[in-house]
TrEMBL record:
This is Aminotransferase-like plant mobile domain-containing protein. Residues 282-377 are annotated as: Disordered. Residues 342-353 have a biased composition (Acidic residues). GO terms for biological process: meristem maintenance. Pfam families: PMD. Residues 4-307 form the Aminotransferase-like plant mobile domain. Residues 360-377 have a biased composition (Basic residues). InterPro entries: AminoTfrase-like_pln_mobile, MAIN-like. It comes from the Eukaryota.
Length: 377
């Protein structure tokens, strides 16, 4: 993996929105990427359980027959899980002629080891947490592993972008790497000769996913610090036209760019087809707007409505007629213009109108005056 490119990308992650803030816009891995790259199931019950670690050694012994020994010093805090080296030492090889219960135990441990190394690794990369073994208690249970892997990656990105003194990031970084290679040209490796895939025609579940397109790529051999600064500048200048918004194909041709694609990649496409369509429509509108000249004014939408007295009649409102109005109040300027004398009532109203504003401004002026302070000494 390109460490410098991943670090430059993580620096633009915002935990408030769970998106990468780039010049081209906000981007993030979605369930569509989980299906196409990993082929994990999305449909199923959410992987929500109690993560309390009280008595985890006793529960692990009940499930797999043994547990890591406690630390010699009781003051040392041991994490709730087993090291990968301990799992390989004790469950590396299933004994010959094992019974059904032993095979089931080794299956539990193998799946626990596999998902802890791939889907849910921590920033240290040396420990298999106890909670994932607890989720594999019932193998026949259908969990939504795709949403769990994506949510775990979001959480690891939230923690990684806040770290200042210690580095490291967990989560399935293969998903993040292939996602960035498909869409962004920053840190994208060069694809080498394609390796032949051993097809199993009798078992279609063994067909490759979209990640197989990046199976054999070139490695970055330059100085990571220099390349990190270079990738930062490229991300700062990345425009929307340089982003591949639909790497898997259009709405009706998802996955058509790769022959022999695993059917698990598009099996649950109904969960992410609608957002893809909306995104493609918005992107096409933005691209059309970007080609519009800034010096040429074009009409947008319809012209404003012109209301007539008939509109008020149709809405059931009464049309104002001159006869229904009260006699208009003639102002002082109108009297001067028409040389018409005012009546006694109109003169009183005119004087009240002239006095009210003066009194209001006088009161406001008094309120705005600062309090006088006497001099000391």
């Amino acid at each position: 993996m390109n460490v410098a490119a991943l670090t430059a990308l993580v620096d633009r992650w915002r935990p408030e929105t769970h998106t990468f803030h780039l010049r081209a816009g906000e981007m993030t891995p979605t369930l569509q990427d989980v299906s196409m790259i990993l082929g994990l199931p999305i449909q199923g019950e959410p992987l929500c359980m109690n993560t309390a670690s009280d008595g985890w050694r006793r529960q692990m012994e009940d499930l797999i027959g043994m547990a890591p020994p406690p630390p010699e010093d009781k003051k040392d805090r041991a994490p709730a899980g087993a090291a990968f080296s301990w799992i390989r030492l004790n469950f590396g090889q299933c004994p010959q002629g094992a019974n059904r219960d032993t095979l089931r135990t080794y299956t539990h441990v193998y799946l626990w080891y596999m998902i802890s190394r791939t889907l849910f690794p921590d920033s240290g990369g040396k420990l298999a947490h106890w909670c994932w073994l607890k989720a594999l208690t019932v193998l026949e249970h259908r969990w939504s592993w795709g949403t769990a892997a994506l949510a775990y990656l979001y959480r690891q990105l939230d923690e990684a972008c806040r770290r200042t003194w210690s580095g490291g990031i967990g989560g399935y970084l293969l998903l993040l790497s292939v996602w960035s290679w498909d869409r962004l040209s920053v840190g994208r490796p060069r694809i080498l000769n394609e390796r032949p895939w051993p097809h199993h025609r009798n078992n279609l579940d063994r067909e490759p996913t979209w990640a197989y397109l990046w199976d054999n790529v070139s490695e970055m051999t330059s100085d990571p610090k220099i390349m990190y600064m270079h990738y930062i500048k490229e991300l700062d200048t990345l425009t929307a036209e340089q982003v591949n918004w639909e790497p898997y194909g259009t709405y009706y041709r998802i996955g058509a760019g790769m022959p022999d694609l695993n059917h698990k990649c598009t099996e649950e496409a109904r969960f992410w087809h609608s957002p893809t369509t909306i995104l493609s429509q918005s992107i096409s509108q933005e691209q059309e707007a970007s080609h519009r000249s800034a010096y040429q004014l074009k009409p947008r939408g319809k012209a404003p409505n012109r209301y007539t007295p008939d509109d008020y009649v149709n809405r059931g409102k009464k049309v104002v007629i001159q006869e229904d109005e009260a006699p208009p109040r003639r102002s002082y300027l109108r009297r001067m213009r028409n040389d018409e004398p005012l009546s006694s009532e109109e003169e009183e109203q005119e004087e009240q109108q002239q006095q009210e504003p003066r009194q209001r401004t006088k009161r406001m002026a008094v309120r705005k005056q600062p309090a006088r302070r006497g001099r000391r000494g």
